[in-house]
Specification:
- By secondary structure, the protein is an all-beta fold.
- It has a single domain, classed as N-terminal domain of TfIIb (Single Sheet).
- 0% of the residues lie in helices and 42% in strands.
- The chain contains no helices and 6 strands.
- Strand 4 and strand 5 form a beta hairpin.
- The radius of gyration is 11 Å and the shape is globular.
Length: 57
């Protein structure tokens, strides 16, 4: 597959959410608004703690 999804924990509020590893736009935490992912033109820069890669079927 072209990209992977990751379960990421927010460093501010400990909320966990699934993000795309090659995100094309900034992704903010759904609870507190802290930026979790920043696009880089390829693999995104993940600022939260990566808990696990989400398995794709």
């Amino acid at each position: 597959m072209a990209g992977s999804f990751y379960n990421v924990r927010c460093p501010d509020c400990e909320n966990e959410q699934v993000v795309f590893g090659k995100a094309a736009s900034e992704i903010a935490c759904a609870v507190c608004g802290h930026t979790l992912v920043r696009p880089t033109g390829g693999k995104a820069e993940i600022e939260g703690d990566v808990i696990e890669a989400v398995e794709q079927r």
